[in-house]
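Worked example 4.2. Below are the chains of a multi-component assembly; read each line carefully before continuing.
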Amino acid sequence: MASLAATFGRGAMTNHWVDFKNTDVFLVLGANPAENHPCGWKWAFVARDTRKARIIHIDPRFTRTSATADKWVAIRAGTDTAFFGGMIKYILDNELYHDEYVKLHTNASFIVAEGFSFSDGLFSGYDEATRKYDTASWDYERETGPTSGDEGGPTQSEGFAMRDPTLEHPRSVFQLLKQHYARYTPEVVEEVTGIPRDQFLEIAQEFGATGVPEKVGNIVYAVGLTHHTQGSQMIRAAAIVQLLLGNMGRPGGGMNAERGHANIQGNTDNAQSWDILPGYLAIPKPGTTTIDEYIDTSALTQLDPDAVNYFGTNYRKFLVSLAKAWYGDAATASNEFAFDYFPKPDKNWSWMTFYDEALAGRLHGLFNSGMSSVNIGPDSNRVIRALSNLKWLVVMDPFPTASSEFWHGDGIDPASVDTEVFFLPTTHWIEKSGAFVNSGRWTQWKHAALPAEGELKDDVYILAQLLHRLRRLYQEEGGPFPDPIMDLTWPYSNPDNPPLEEVSKEINGVDLTTGRQLATFNDAKDDGTTSIGNWLYTGSWTEEGNQMDRRGTDDPTGLGFYHNWTWSWPANRRVMYNRASADAQGRPWDPTRPGITWNGTRWVGDVPDFTPDSSPQERKGAFIMTGEGVGRLFAPGSLMGDGPIPEHYEPVESPVQNVLSPTRHVPTTILYEGVAASFAEDDSEFPYVATTYRVTEHEHFVTQYVPYLVEAMPDFFIELPRELAAEKGINDLDQVRVLSKRGQVQGVALVTKRMRPLRLGNKVVYQVGIPVHWHPTGGHGKGNTAQMVNLLTPYVGDGTTVTPEFKAFLVNVESA
Amino acid sequence: MTTTDLGLTIRRQSATPASGTNIRRDHSTPALEISKLVDIDLCIGCKACEVACKEWNDLQVEETHLFSGYQSHPDLTPHTWDLMRFNEVELAGGALAWLIRKDSCLHCEEPGCLLACPAPGAVIQYENGIVDFNQDACIGCQYCVSGCPFDIPRFDTVTKKVYKCTLCIDRVSTGLEPACVKACPTGAIRFGTKEDMLAYGLEKVEKLKARGFSEAMLYDPVGVGGLHMMYVVPRGEILEQYGLPVDPTVTAPTSFPSLIGALRKVGATASWAGLLAAAVYFLKTGKRYPPPEEEAVAAAYEKAPHG
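Applying the procedure described above to all two chains together yields the following structure tokens:
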């Protein structure tokens, strides 16, 4: 999601599922939507049946999605940046880009500062000792003082980026892209990805052909792109393709990140990640003491006279309103709205860091709520060691998990584990009402289908008890800095089990002067008179009631916006950045598929992602969340930790050298203590590329408790290409062991034509597929410890987001 | 909605001269014919239909093990009436196809099971086209198994009865779609009047042809009088790779000797009592199966006192 925010301004699927019916060409990479998002994927079939859309699937495996696609090509896991880099080169070389769009809606014309450079796989500013970039040189050339623009044009002022509308300046983003991707020839693409060049060229040609106004292409991806050390750059590379082809902001287009079940998007929006506050406000940095300082270091600054810079401009309103929601009357103008109470983490507290801290004895307790450390994290053996080193572990879950039971797992002597484990059985989502945010940002209210059984408690009940007990302890025993706990607002009718309806209203926000629910985040104030739990969700529960529970099915445009069906953030907008669906005059690129249209007085169609009455003559930039006002082909400054332009690096475990540069791996990955020794350096011992995934019959780990689903997909399996099986003397259905440098698993061999050997230069590489769903707990499943795929995966994450590299690592395979 | 609207009048029953129940039917409206249709082009093989079928019909959980590929059971069973079959096929030119087909009763217009069944009322065909088994009347002879050109009915060695998809007649009779249709996330399994399904299927075939599937076809074979669960098959040239017979015919003997011949295939499992019953019926009436209900109604009308 970091990559989408860095490119467009917001981190979410840009379009929505129903909108897939408006697509002409689907390019699906790092995703298996037929398997994992079947309900949404049906709209791709509608596009095919109604507008002859084509579906291209690129994946290490021939999957259920490939079975329904028009074309499938095998790719080596972890090489998608090379593929997209080749696409970018092809699009630029053959002038397939949407020229007018690129000039109007991207930063192609921006001039990059002289200090920026790239050589040998490294961008300027790299420090080998800290494995970090100083990103100061990844900047635009700035205006140094006020200058007068062309007649009638805007006057540029200090700090604004320099532009060259002709795109010819050698340091313009456009020319830099050309330069950077010159190395990504079809031959290189073939050697890196294993996609034969003729097939690559066919795909590049077919998808590249959507760079015209009357065609729209859609890139669909999921964690097959995110779960890599270079995951966010793979997504950035795809996003660049979409900007060049003019496919962003348009119905049927977009960068469509398929989010997990059933509420991952909602988790992210509401600050499940360590580095954000609700609504994607940055977590304050250590030492920040005032809101001014916070805004200075966090909010984007305006870089172009035409930029709206909506987020940057309103940052303070959203932060202050959040402080009011959290701390109420304790947050006042005179105490910086309780900014002291906000956490200011001193380092990267990504969840992999937790276990590292536990191993080092610096972390004593951990809550698992809606997740299971042992089987969700990479390198399960390492995580188990970390959990064993805790004083206590609380697991809140409807069913026992591999984490709640880790202390008596296979090969573990319970007497050797000092960790005190508490298992708190919670209600399942089927048993409670609340909102799910789907992949396409639809915030849908659902109603409890079953009453809770036995002594199950809602997670929110447990959290409330925790708060009450902590407060009592502070009252009785005192302690340092009790204020953030003692002053927390808790305005619920049932303080012991806050109704989620009331929490939702709180998230939406309220005008504290009138007591009325806010209708839009445009009404947020920075003077403490509005309280908003998450500004992005303002509008979801207004004075008109719960907008998320609406079920209207009218669709006047016929484009599938369904504005009265549930509620979509932001502002009930269905396609984000929809101003880019129109040209400079506000005319839709494709009149048959208008996103929004300027009708002379206002923008009509979808809810405009723009000031509704800002006329095209005002020339305001379409990407209102960025300081540039346009989509970013080049992501300046610290938006991305590992480079402003995507570059291919090999996964941490790879069978080959990096063909593109001497820098083999992402240079900014965090190397936790001792992990380097747990990576295979080459393919001598572990020759095969493994990738992990899910199957449609199961939902993560919980469905091992559902007998019919265990019946439908009973056994842990390993998918092997026929050729590899033959080499190894493995027959279909043999028991096989898969070993990595970190652990081993055992399962049934599925020898299949659907996995194919890849030819990389003179080398043949085999890929092995392993699903995630099996584990030792589960009433009806037949899982055991040796079926947890994460026993194999490497403990390393993305160079920007620290998302683990689950999707490409090295293994060996042998008969069991 | 009345039962007439839903076509729930019995058209014919196994080993029974006339249904009799159609007398009360309002003949001013034509009988409603329904059909399921599986558009294989839209099917992703998710098995939602398989699970929904087991849930709705309260079929017991069976211990399964992978036996090859993603298919859950090697075959249909008395407790699994709907099975997704998977077949990895290399096409000419080297491209790969993963043929996935929902396998369950096709509800033939001329049901081989019904025609073969010697137990009166054990197999019932409704006006709407649904072919259902009545286990209370089933004698366990398994003629239906042999009579079925699609190898659908399954004998339960515990209850000594035969089972198969009912096309969710209990749901259909209350105006609901079958459970598999309801559960299908992509709209691959459709349900409606036979006429509507034919129209959808024929249109879809044209679309597939336009997409390059030159042998795309609507599977509704004449040899069984047509189906009440049809398929849209993208690759008609490799029909058998989907597990569908190219030219299925019902074991519909035109004379008694050929009936004997057909039943001989049943071998040791044949119930001679049933065979005799069928033979007696043939000899007495000269008809190979119960007459169409219209004839029965007309006959009843003629016999009724007039004036």
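Take a moment to check your reading of the output against the notes. The first helix of chain A runs from residue 2 to 8. The domain at 676-815 of chain A is CATH 2.40.40.20 (Barwin-like endoglucanases).
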